[in-house]
Write a sequence for this structure.
């Protein structure tokens, strides 16, 4: 018989709360231009700017949703045969 083992993290924030928090206090970590900014600066943008971010912060709701799913939702499932 096969069983499916699901690994699930409990989410400390709902998706809506996460998006609201990011939009109220944007930071480089959630910016869609982080890679470009880091490349242009020649160093880690977060180390230079800090976690406060800058006025050029930009991301879509879809992009923030993907970040949320990667950060808080572990969708890995494994099938084990016994």
């Amino acid at each position: 018989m096969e069983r499916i083992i699901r690994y699930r993290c409990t989410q400390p924030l709902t998706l809506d709360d996460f998006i609201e928090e990011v939009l109220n206090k944007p930071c480089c970590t959630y910016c869609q231009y982080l890679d470009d900014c880091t490349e242009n600066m020649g160093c880690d943008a977060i180390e230079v700017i800090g976690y406060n971010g800058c006025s050029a912060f930009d991301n879509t709701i879809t992009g923030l949703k993907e970040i949320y799913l990667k950060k808080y939702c572990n969708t890995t499932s494994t099938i084990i045969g016994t």
